[in-house]
Amino acid sequence: MTARVRALQVVSIAAVLVVWEVVARAGWVDAAFVPAPSAVARALAAVGPAALAGLGDTLLKTAVAYVIAVVLGVGLGILVGSVRLLRDVLNPFVIAAYGIPKILVLPWIIMLTGFGTTPAVLYGTLHATFPIMLLVMGGVRDVDRTLITVARAYGAGAWQLYWKVILPAVVPSVLAGMRLGIVFCLLGVLVVEMFAGVRGMGYVMGALANGFKAPELFAATALVSAASIAIVLALDWLNDRLSHWR
To answer: Is the distance from CB of 193 to CB of 200 less than 8 angstroms?
Structure first.
C-alpha cells in the first residue's frame, strides 16, 4: 500500500471525526445518544480496564469457537464438496441450515447448557461453521476438472489428489470463509454474552446500554471494532502469504 493511499485513509478518518465533533458540539444530535468523539475518548480512559478485561474474555471464547468452526467447516466442506453424491444429497439441507436465523436456536442452547462460557462457544461455532462450509464446498465444486484428470493420469492417489490439486485450488475459498467466519463467530459470542453471559465484552456492553452510558458504550464498541478489524487484516496478510501455494 502506497504512502499516498495511507495518507488519504488517515485524512478521511480525521475528517469524519472532526465533522462528528462539530455536529455533536453544535447540538444537532442528542449528546445523550450520540456523544462527541472527545467525550468517547474520555470515557475510554474511564471504562478501559473493565472493557479490556471483557474483550480479552470474549476473544478467548471467540478463538475456541473459531478453531472448532474452521476445522468443521473446512473438513466438512471438502468432504461434501468432493463427493458428488454427498453434495447432491446434503447441499439443500446445508443451505437451509445456513438460512435459518440462528437466534432461534439460542434458547435451546441456553436451556441445554446453561449460562456462561459453554453456550457462547457453541453459538459462536454454529454461527461460523455454515458460511465457511458453504464457501469451501463451492471452491471444491469449482476446481478445474482438467487438473484432476491430469493428476490421475500421472498416477496420483486419493491423498495426493487432495494435497497436490484440491487443497491448493480451494485455498482462496478457505481463506474467504475464514475471514467471513471470524466476523460471524465474534458476533455469535457477543450475542450470547449480552443475553446469557456472566462476563465478557457483550455483558459489559449490555450493562452500559442498560445504564444509558452512551460515551462508554461507544468506547466499548470502538474497542470491539478495532479488534475485529485487526483480526481481519491479519487474515488478509495470511492470504497474501499463502497465495503462492496455489
So the answer is: yes
In degrees to the nearest 10, what's the CA dihedral of 196, 200, 205, 207? 60
**124 and 145, same domain (yes or no):** yes
User: How confident is the model over 200-226, as pLDDT tens digits?
Assistant: 898 888 888 888 888 888 988 888 888
| 167 contact partners, CB below 8 Å, separation of at least 6 | 78
Q: Please tell me the distance from the alpha carbon of residue 243 to that of residue 195, in angstroms, as a whole number.
A: 40
d(C-alpha 184, C-alpha 66), whole Å:
9
pTM, 2 dp = 0.84
Distance CA(175)–CA(153), nearest Å, equals: 29
C-alpha count within 13 angstroms, C-beta hemisphere, residue 163: 5
Could you tell me if 17 and 72 lie in one domain?
no
Determine the Cα–Cα distance for residues 71 and 77; give it in Å rounded to an integer. Answer: 10
Residues 15 and 127 both lie in one domain: no
